Amino acid sequence: MTIILFVIIFGIIVLSHEFGHFLVAKKNGIHVVEFAIGMGPTLYHIDRGGTKYSIKLLPFGGACIFEGEDGLSAEREETERYLRREGEGGSFLDAPVWSRIATVFAGPFVNLLLGFLIALILVAYRGTDLPVIQMVSEGSAAQEAGLMAGDVITRMNGEKIHLYREVRLNSMLNSDGKDFSISYLRGGQEYSVVLTPTYSAEDDRYYIGLMGVGEYMSCRGFSIIKYGFYESEYVLKNTIKSLQMLVTGKLGKDDVSGPVGVASYVGETYETAKEYGFLTVVMSMLELVVILSINIGVMNLLPLPALDGGRLVFMFLEVVRGKPVPPEKEGFVHMAGLILFFILMIFVMYNDIMRLFR
After folding, report:
1. Is residue 177 situated within a structural domain?
2. Cα angle at 195 between 192 and 197, to 5 degrees?
3. Beta bridge partners of 210
4. Are the beta carbons of 34 and 63 closer than 8 angstroms?
5. I need a surface site. Which of 166, 196, 253, 300 has the fewest CB within 10 A?
6. Rounded mean pLDDT of 300-325?
7. Which residues are known to be catalytic?
8. Total structural domains within the chain
9. What is the pLDDT of residue 168?
10. 80 has a pLDDT exceeding 60
């Protein structure tokens, strides 16, 4: 069941990403040579309108390959042009730069959009958690600052707060114990305090002393859109802050997961949710789709070679310079990045497997 659910979840995310590329490429007259789901050897394929639609052996990733995007040799370009039926589109390199930018950006954008749309379903079904304080620990920094149960937190360190999960996230990220400000509403009046987290030697971390899970609110009508946006925004901010923590060393290799780690987490989530019925399983899996889809959307926009963000860097350079970077040079950079990416994936996968036996 873990494998089936993982393949379905990853398939939805990859299919939406590649379909974003595919749809915008077609709209801009760019010929798609192959639309593939998965990686490795081809298990099945059909040819339609000059495009090869294929399913690969390994359900990790996918590809939407455009004519000419990888600096194809003249012979291969001629072969592709011959196979392509008239009117099916032209080379990626021949398309206007803004058409290429839109085509590359479309994949990550659809991932972010998918996360938002599924967040609407989740919010409509389960409601949301308002940032209302339920309990304050005795002797904590929060109590000393005057915070009380019933206060509605509106900002932390100047950042707007819409969900109680954002309160927990910001508290966890403040691992160095620095002072930070909290704005809150009480009786319709807004107040601001600055508190200093207290250190727990037992847990080796700092706490501010807020307890509970926020105040539940059922969502109907426009509030579904409003809190669906906040839900996806929370995942987006969580992803970006996690990347920042990786770069600064606050997170390590054990905090990063690849396909094996994700599949393991899918299995654990399923085992927990199945005790509460089929609908709970579905909603739990949809929540994973939101998290993973937004994560993949953000990761693909990073300005690194072989990723969509790396390709966008070259295209924006073209906009600034007024002429493109030679395809063979760009192709070399992306190939080097792809090799490093696969080395990283092997390391992460190995670490995931070792973690399963701890």
Report:
1. yes
2. 150
3. 136
4. yes
5. 253
6. 91
7. 18
8. 1
9. 84
10. no
What HEC string does the chain produce?
CHHHHHHHHHHHHHHHHHHHHHHHHHHCCECEEEEEEEEEEEEEEEEECCEEEEEEEEEEEEEEEECCCCCCCHHHHHHHHHHCCCCCCECCCCCCHHHHHHHHHHHHHHHHHHHHHHHHHHHHHHCEEECECCEECCCCHHHHCCCCCCCEEEEECCEECCCHHHHHHHHHHCCCCCCEEEEEEECCEEEEEEECCEEECCCCEEECCEECCCEEECCCCHHHHHHHHHHHHHHHHHHHHHHHHHHHCCCCHHHCCCHHHHHHHHHHHHHHHHHHCHHHHHHHHHHHHHHHHHHHHHHHCCCCCCCHHHHHHHHHHHHHHCCCCCHHHHHHHHHHHHHHHHHHHHHHHHHHHHHHCC
Q: Which domain holds residue 183?
A: 128-217
Give the pLDDT of residue 78: 47
Residue 133 included in any domain: yes
Between 202 and 224, the higher pLDDT residue: 224
* Contact indicator for 228, 319 with CB cutoff of 8 Å: no
pLDDT recorded at residue 253: 66
If phi > 0 it is left, if psi is from -120 to 50 it is alpha, else beta; for residue 61 that is: left
Mean pLDDT over 38-61 rounds to 86
pLDDT of residue 7: 85
Query: Does 267 have pLDDT greater than 50?
Result: yes
Is 14 part of any domain? no
Q: What is the CATH number of the domain that holds 156?
A: 2.30.42.10
For residue 325, report the phi and psi dihedrals to the nearest 5 degrees.
Answer: -70, 135
> Which residue in this structure is represented by tokens 């639309």?
35
pLDDT at position 82 over 50: no
Q: Please tell me the predicted confidence (pLDDT) of residue 324.
A: 86
Count of Cβ atoms closer than 10 Å to residue 184 Cβ: 24
What pLDDT sits at residue 83? 47
Instruction: Report yes or no on 136 lying in a domain.
Output: yes
